[in-house]
């Protein structure tokens, strides 16, 4: 599904219909600079689509549209830095020294603030977002990076139900490390942590899950230290976990400060709290600030998700597929392990990177496109329209490969 | 023109026709992940549109597509860093230390390389490109930046023909400063300059021009010090200076190593030399790597530019407008100055920021959308279809405002 970016598969009639509708052709032909010259109906379109109840990330009322996942994270970082700096100067106006020093990339105008990220994370590949990406060396080598703190993401033992105590300890270890890093970077390195970025499921890094309790505590740690919590839903957002946003599974005490998205949402962007809205214009800005032609596609998509109850289908088919995969894990004992997932956002590990690549290549020969992630995981990223019939085709093919 | 991003104005029949053509609807509806799953005809489409003779930047055979101007510059930086690092290690494989240190943002894997940029420059707003942007403090304040060198861009006295000697000296001053900075950052700060980024006309910063001789020497300085030369044509590219790429006016001894684009080209991207192509896969990569639906629009645009000889029209109408503006500059002596431009990419200065804002606001009241840039400049960024009739409407309105 084009790296998890097609929510309804190919040639869905709702999307083709939106593109064929001549009312939409002028929107596709005349791309505006949304930051300065939005079309008259742009606010209404945002309300009806991205801010619609059931689509918007719960509790977040503000939306900023962008182009792709990397630039959504980069601009969300900027929103966080601007908010953090305003807190630090207690709302006072910029000093002359700040205004002048930033023009030559020096502090205090260009401050040494940081974003804390996690080992194994993937948040994009432009220079800011790449400084928070730590999934594969080939993404990062030879490219300059900011000296920002990197904490451990929980590494659980599977099956979860047999390793409850150990995995709870792992949560505690990681949370303690996060707090230590925040204090160390602030006090020792003079690089305060303005925000924390985390995926609700580390996707590119290997489909690493963390518990709702971990995320609940992370929300508290983040607030306690005055750092914004950014949940990166670029790969998990838009329905594949059975909720519109994966972090809805976590029952956080209060919403994250920022939720970024792209891929299945067709355009990039982020939801955020009113606090994070800059007080001055032109601070988070670029020529296009998104693309109304993508909102046309997204409107058809979210209408279809609602009309066809696709989130319920994802839960049902996800449970079915996960259950069958767990059965298969026992059946082929030792050949695959750590079957895990939410909705149809499912993965399992092979025993070596080579055996993983072999499984993917043999699936491919049978007409099934699957992807690898992390060191030796196979990940499933079907469209939301994936059903039991499709699951059975996949499961039969996988069984016969593993039994060979 | 939506911040110089609409080459043919609104609702051009060629663009509307391309969008209405049902052959194109599946391309708009099914956006691929171009880096891994390009459509069968994607290479042909790239050859026919972006790499077409008369469209491609002369001498550059390689194309990488992206989403917007910022991410084009960011990814071009990465290409430059990768090329530079490979030169430094004489083509040897990565060391274990490099592979491990880059995962935690530390050298040698995350090296302290830099991109040299210029005072007054604008290259985008994500964290890497923002480190090379120096046009207005509000773009930069409170956002961390890399410590990269910043050189003076020539500041000329106008009219040029009366200040030849002085302006030549200014070129020499800036070129000497560039060489000094390259040496200083390498030897004293241990932050080698891997590349130089420059606009052929500093646009957002105030429509600052530099001479062809300056750019010719810059090309030599860049090669001499082993740094790649990146010409950022995001605002100047696509025809407004009367050539497809503004740097074609400069008669460089050899082509720049990279030319980035966006805006009028509908999608982002860059042309580059074969040397800059990374030897390994997945180093410059992201989910979408551009957008075929934008190439549909661009194809209609470049066909129209050819068929209607629009580059010739830009030269003719640009000369006409520039001549009339120079006459007007004399006529209203002292009220505007430094009339300058190439093609219809024209600007003039007012005497104060306030008088500039007043001119723009009064033009607006007469139904004319003009933009400000730099401290007190008014910039013209019409579509390529702008003709003498439109120029006269603008010139009459401006004359009556300046005479009031």
Automatic annotation (TrEMBL), chains A, B:
<dbReference type="InterPro" id="IPR015421">
    <property type="entry name" value="PyrdxlP-dep_Trfase_major"/>
</dbReference>
<dbReference type="InterPro" id="IPR005814">
    <property type="entry name" value="Aminotrans_3"/>
</dbReference>
<keyword id="KW-0808">Transferase</keyword>
<keyword id="KW-0032">Aminotransferase</keyword>
<dbReference type="GO" id="GO:0005739">
    <property type="term" value="C:mitochondrion"/>
</dbReference>
<dbReference type="Pfam" id="PF00202">
    <property type="entry name" value="Aminotran_3"/>
</dbReference>
<protein>
    <recommendedName>
        <fullName>4-aminobutyrate--2-oxoglutarate transaminase</fullName>
        <ecNumber>2.6.1.19</ecNumber>
    </recommendedName>
</protein>
<keyword id="KW-0663">Pyridoxal phosphate</keyword>
<dbReference type="InterPro" id="IPR015422">
    <property type="entry name" value="PyrdxlP-dep_Trfase_small"/>
</dbReference>
<dbReference type="InterPro" id="IPR015424">
    <property type="entry name" value="PyrdxlP-dep_Trfase"/>
</dbReference>
<dbReference type="GO" id="GO:0030170">
    <property type="term" value="F:pyridoxal phosphate binding"/>
</dbReference>
<dbReference type="GO" id="GO:0009450">
    <property type="term" value="P:gamma-aminobutyric acid catabolic process"/>
</dbReference>
<comment type="similarity">
    <text>Belongs to the class-III pyridoxal-phosphate-dependent aminotransferase family.</text>
</comment>
<dbReference type="GO" id="GO:0034386">
    <property type="term" value="F:4-aminobutyrate:2-oxoglutarate transaminase activity"/>
</dbReference>
């Amino acid at each position: 599904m084009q790296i998890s970016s097609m929510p309804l598969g190919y040639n869905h009639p709702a999307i083709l219909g939106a593109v064929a509708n001549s009312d939409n052709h002028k929107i596709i032909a005349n791309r505006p600079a949304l930051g300065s010259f939005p079309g008259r109906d742009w606010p209404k379109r945002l309300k009806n689509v991205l801010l619609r109840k059931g689509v918007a990330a719960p509790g977040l009322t503000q939306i900023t549209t962008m182009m792709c996942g990397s630039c959504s994270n980069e601009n969300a970082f900027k929103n966080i830095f601007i908010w953090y700096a305003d807190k630090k100067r207690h709302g006072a106006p910029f000093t002359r020294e700040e205004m002048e020093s930033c023009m030559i990339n020096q502090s205090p105008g260009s401050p040494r603030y940081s974003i804390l990220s996690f080992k194994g994370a993937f948040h994009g590949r432009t220079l800011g977002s790449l400084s928070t990406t730590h999934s594969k060396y080939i993404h990062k080598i030879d490219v300059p990076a900011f000296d920002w703190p990197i904490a451990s993401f929980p590494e659980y033992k599977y099956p979860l139900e047999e390793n409850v105590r150990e995995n709870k300890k792992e949560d505690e270890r990681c949370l303690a490390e996060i707090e230590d890093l925040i204090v160390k970077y602030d006090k020792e390195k003079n690089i305060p942590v303005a925000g924390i970025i985390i995926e609700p499921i580390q996707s590119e890094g290997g489909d690493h899950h963390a518990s709702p309790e971990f995320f609940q505590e992370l929300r508290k740690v983040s607030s306690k230290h005055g750092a914004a919590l950014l949940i990166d839903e670029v790969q998990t957002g838009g329905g594949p976990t059975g909720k519109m946003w994966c972090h809805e599974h976590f029952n956080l005490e209060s919403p994250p400060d920022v939720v970024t998205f792209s891929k299945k949402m067709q355009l990039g962007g982020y939801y955020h709290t009113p606090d994070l809205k800059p007080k001055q214009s032109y601070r988070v800005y670029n020529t296009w600030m998104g693309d109304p032609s993508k909102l046309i596609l997204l409107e058809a998509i979210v209408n279809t998700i609602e009309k066809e109850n696709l989130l319920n289908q994802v839960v049902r088919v996800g449970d079915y597929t996960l259950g069958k995969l767990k059965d298969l894990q026992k059946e082929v004992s030792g050949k695959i392990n750590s079957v895990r997932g939410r909705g149809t956002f499912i993965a399992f590990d092979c025993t070596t990177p080579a055996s993983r690549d072999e499984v993917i290549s043999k699936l491919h020969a049978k007409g099934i496109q699957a992807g690898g992630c992390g060191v030796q995981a196979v990940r499933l990223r079907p469209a939301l329209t994936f059903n039991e019939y499709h699951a059975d085709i996949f499961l039969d093919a996988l069984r016969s490969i593993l039994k060979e």
